[in-house]
Amino acid sequence: MKIAIVGKGGVGKTTIAACLARLLSRDGYSVIAVDADPSLNLAQALGIPRDVANSVPVLFDYEEFIKSRTLRPSGVYLVNPRVNDVVERFTIKGPDGVKLLKLGAVRKGGARCLCPEYAFLRALLSHLILGRKDIVILDMVAGLEHMSRGAARGVDLMLCITEPSVKAIDVALQMHKLSKDLDVKMFAVVINKASSEDDVGIVKRALEGVEVIGVIPYDASVIEADREGISLIDYAPTSKAIQCIKELKKYIEAFIK
């Protein structure tokens, strides 16, 4: 099962990705959590101590490694670079046995073509999506650039996190449209930070025709955990948000089985 978690920045993608990863790992699955957001907050959300998290290599910081896999001496780049050893070389095991892979950002190198970097990214994500038996949870960068370059092609579930705001809903609609071009097997929405039934109704009406598979209420514990730098699942394991994420986990497990 390969899950890409997408949505506008600030809607709660990373918190939900981390909690799902740990809950699924507790159920006995082998889980790889991929931090594809340049902010690199997934380690903290998973509950990996800061000093340990900072020691984890960030894949796209290793420019020479990327070049060695994507560029020939002639300057021609490889469309399908070798990536089958990346998970073993660049992951670290966190709480509940979740493996973390930090991608980091594809660097904007002036006017130079970034085709080699994106070829490497597509090859790596294709390997994670199609070439391994693990559950892979991709915490995707906010926005559409990686998506438009096919980085999430072929995932089993594109889980779009949204909130009751016009901008977040607009991004969800764009993601839904783009998912149809990327061989995504299923696209679904989770409404986060809902303060009332009115909030839920506003989002559902705006997303008419798009499947909504979960609602997570506004929960002050999420803010408190972030302020303390503690994973939500450790800080408030019985919170309303965690209970709803557990229900979301059950929904996902039904597809795995």
Would you give an account of this structure?
There is one protein chain. This protein is an alpha/beta fold and 257 residues long. It has a single domain (2-256), classed as Rossmann fold (3-Layer(aba) Sandwich). 44% of the residues lie in helices and 18% in strands. The protein has helices at 13-26, 42-46, 50-55, 63-70, 86-90, 115-130, 145-148, 166-179, 197-206, 220-228, 232-235, 240-256; strands at 2-6, 31-36, 91-93, 99-102, 135-140, 157-162, 186-194, 212-217. The chain has an 8-stranded mixed sheet, with helices on both faces. Helix 9 links the parallel strand 7 (186-194) and strand 8. Helix 1 (13-26) crosses helix 12. It is globular. The mean pLDDT is 88.
Counted up, domains total: 1
H/E topology pattern: EHEHHHHEEHEHEHEHEHHH
> In which order are the strands of the major sheet placed?
3-4-2-5-1-6-7-8
The number of helical elements comes to: 12
Mean pLDDT: 88
Strand content: 15-25%
- Which secondary-structure class do the elements indicate? alpha/beta
The CATH superfamily label reads P-loop containing nucleotide triphosphate hydrolases
How do the helices and strands line up, and which of them pair or pack?
Elements: E1 2-6, H1 13-26, E2 31-36, H2 42-46, H3 50-55, H4 63-70, H5 86-90, E3 91-93, E4 99-102, H6 115-130, E5 135-140, H7 145-148, E6 157-162, H8 166-179, E7 186-194, H9 197-206, E8 212-217, H10 220-228, H11 232-235, H12 240-256
Helix pairs in contact: 1-12, 4-6
